[in-house]
Amino acid sequence: LCAACVVVRPVSGLRARLPGLCGQTPGNSLTRWLAALLLATTASAEPLAVRVLADFAQEDALAAWEGDAAVAAEEGLVRVRFGPRRRWQLWRDLWPNMRLTREAGLVGDWSAYDWLEFALANRSPLAGLLKLRIDDATGTRVTRLFTLPPGAERVCRVDLGLLRRELDLERVVLVDLFMSDPAREYELALNYLRLVATRIDPALELLADPFGGGAVQVRGASGRSALYQVEIRDDLGELVDAHAEETTQLDWTWSGGAPGRYRAHVRIVDLDWDERSGAGDLGEFAVLPEPLRPGLVAWGAETTRKIVPDALPRLGQTLYGEKTIGNGGGAPLRLELARNEVEGVQLVFRAQRSAALELAVEDLIRADGTAFPPTAITWRQVGYVFTQRPAEYPVDFAGWWPDPLLPRSQLALRSRENQVAWLSLRTAAGTAPGTYRGRVAIQVDGKRLGSIPLEVRVHAATLPDSTAVRTAFSLYGHMLAQVYGAEQLGAMERRYMDFLVDHRLNPDHLYRRQPPSLEVLADYARQGRLNAFNLLYIDAEQEYDRDGLIALAQRLDPLVAHLDSLGLMDRAYIYGFDEVESGEFTALERVFAFVKNRYPGLRTATTARDPGLGLDNRLGELVDIWVPLTAVYEAQTAARARRQGDEVWWYICIAPIHPHANWFIEYPAIEARLLWWMAYRQGVEGFLYYATNRWPGQHVPLRADAYGRALWNPASYNTANGDGSLYYPGPEGPIGSIRLENIRDGIEDYQLLAALAARDGVEAARALSGQLVRSLVDYSRDPTELARVRGALLESLSTGQP
Which of 66, 505, 538, 610 is the most exposed place for a label (fewest CB within 10 A)? Predict the structure, then answer.
């Protein structure tokens, strides 16, 4: 079977069929390789159907394509040259591109497919960045990025399940392959562009009413539409209720039924390609008689989960009812951590009626009587912010999302609505290792209800005060002044710097026009709490002629001398030319060359967009710290840059979006933690983030009611929720967030992986991280799996230690 064929398995009674297209037999070796690669990639996914959008083995394949890239046909593929152009002008997008429109023959209905894919070979000696733009008939456009290692081949894939959340896949009108203002010429070999349908394999789960009242929620998600057939049967196997729905996001709730035991079963039918259905037995649940239903229920949750107010516990989740709590029984809440580390666990409460709840940890001690210090135990209430649906990325829903961590140990419960307590434990370097057992005492309306067992295992592994990974997360002083007033700015700024340092982040500002207090930074450095900071920002918008460089020197001369006297030169850098394209590289070279010549010990850093990281131009001699976006990080090129003595960090901001990880308020909490596992696995030395407290329109501290609902607009960058804002201003200082806690936990995980590498070698640490992170777009979102791998890491590091 040649790669140009449309593969349709013989099935009957389906809604759609496609005609077969027989392509040409592949010719030269590269063509054969690309064709085989495409087939191998989809064969592993058992394709049900393939539709070729462009077959470059056909002689007239290029006739339908437009654009100003240099394009030439070869045997079985197309050779494309993307090279430097005139600078971009308003209304004249001169980035080199090749595009196919619906008017020119592009198949416009992609709704029955799971993947868009095409094979590329980069014939250039340096890495490149190819962009794919797709438009629909409504005028909506999306862009996907593909890094191209030098001299390498890859299959580029777009998940249509994610794409359909942004575009109308029934009315696609444009496919555009382009490069943004490339600094050099690239030659690519492009093979078939095609759509692929694979077997529908949805994630299914059953969530059950913790009170046993009979409500169960059946949920499933698939990349494309399927027919879900749900059945509820009693303990005799008799059908009690059924539901059928064609959807990509099943969310059906069943309520009712006499007391007894029931089972939920789901059958999934692919109406597009395959009548053979998947099926799943979701498990058994109970409906309790009214007198036996508890009035209050609790359950534990990892801190890498976000619990929304109406979330039901998963079937099989350990529940603590009133009787269990009253007897102090049930399985213990478990937590494990290293020494000199902070870890947490969540307790979710749900009550039949409104009530006041108070929590405390009691008698957390080892078998030998050693107590866990009460001052190292912190309770907070998980608060909620109300989100609007953002334009920048698709979300599951808009509404109340958990994020702020309010400093409260008392919770107000509202009838049949979740309230979540966040318990944090902090160990010191000298904390005695071992297992500490105690209880979470629970009072309801001022009376002791009982307790839940708590088990904390402290491993012998010890984190240093310092961290291996460098960070550059901006603290905006003007935002502090906006909320607290200019008279409180000084005190609040130091309070917020301490807060960042406590979360293992350097107190920094990427865009500072005024230098920082070097004495304050020297104090953090002496504590081992500072490993990098920006000295001054070099703005690409300013003119750096002879007078401009003299003025820059007048500012930097005394600063650099002061750096030397304080011993901070190895931690300082100059950051500049934020996210500039190649048109600004000449100015960047001029300024950075001046800095390097005048201050040889002062490092330079930039997010300038050069996929080649200066390996073929003068920037390679002038930039010490390259910072690409996570989505365009290319490992081979980064390794070459490091061999030349550079550091390669990365960053996120408003981009990237799924399938790449990010930490928007609506994204899974685990992603904020796994980004640091990804960083370690990729060898990334540092992480840059443009702002931690971007609070536009906020002029008073955050206020929240007794139930944790905050009066706060979380749209911190355009309509993106939480972008550039990782915590909140409280009346007395910073209020943390679920996302920031996971960032600190991820940094600590990075440090643990670095410790494993120091003992057993880098490959051992990367192999362990590979159990969670297979690539930057293929990673686990299962908190249970993270806990398992992290537990193995702690166990390994503690072996043989006193």
Answer: 66
